[in-house]
Design brief:
Blueprint: H1 8-26, E1 31-32, H2 34-41, H3 45-53, E2 66-67, H4 68-79, E3 85-90, H5 94-101, E4 110-117, E5 126-127, E6 130-131, E7 133-134, E8 148-151, H6 155-167, E9 172-175, E10 188-191, H7 194-200
Parallel strand pairs: 3-4, 3-8, 4-7, 8-9, 9-10
Antiparallel strand pairs: 1-2, 5-6
Helix pairs in contact: 1-4, 2-3
Bound molecules: adenosine-5'-triphosphate.
Length: about 210
Amino acid sequence: MRYHKIPDETIRRLPIYRRGLLFLSEQGQQNVSSRNLAGCLGINPSQIRKDFSYFGDFGGTPGVGYNIQKLIKQINKILKLNVVRRAALVGVGNLGLAILAYPGFGIYGFDIAAAFDISPKKIGRKMKNITIEDVSNLRTLKKRKINLAIITVPRDAAQQTADALVKAGVRGILNFSPHHITVPKKVKVITIDIAMDLARLPYYIPAG
Ligand code: ATP
C-alpha cells in the first residue's frame, strides 16, 4: 500500500503513537481505543483518529479498539522502520560522543555504524565498537550501505559536511549544528537546535 500526501505533522506524531503502543503492549494489553491511547500520550483522541485516517483502515473495531501489534506493524511500515538502518555520525565532540553512547536508537532499528572527525587527535580512537575515521572516508558510505547521517560538527563546518554527505549518497540528515544547511530536494534534513528550544522556555515561566 502506498501512502500519499501525509502531513509532516502527522508523520511527526507517528513515533509518539508507536512509543505509547509499545508501552501498552509491554503492560500486556492487546487492544486500545483511540481515547485510551490519547489519554496515555496526552493527545486529543480526535487527532489520533484523524492521523490514522490518512492511512486508510488501521483495523479499529468499534467497542474493541485497535489491535496494538497490528498498529505497531503498520506504523513501522509507514515510517519504514521495519529494516535496520545504518547511520553515520560526523563530529565526535561532546555532543557526538553523547549520541554515540546513547542506547535508545536500537528500538527504532537504527545502528550508528560509523563515526568521522577531522581532528587527528580523535581519528583512530575507539568508541564502543566504532573506530573514529577521517572525514575523507565519508566517500565510502554508499559502498557501506549507510544512507543516514547525524551532523554534530561546529556551525562553520556544517554545510561542508552536509555537502560531503550528499555527495556520498546520504538521503537523510539529522542536523544538530546550529546552522541552516542547504541540500538538494531528494535529501531530507531535520534540524535539532537544543539551545534554540531552550531559548523559548523562559517565555512560559512567570516573572518573579
Ligand atoms: P572537543 O573540544 O572535544 O572538540 P566540542 O564538542 O567542543 O568537543 P566542537 O568544536 O563542537 O567540539 O566540534 C565537534 C567535533 O566536530 C569535534 O570533534 C571536531 O573535531 C569536529 N569537527 C570540526 N570540524 C569538522 C569537520 N569539518 N569535519 C568533521 N569533524 C569536524
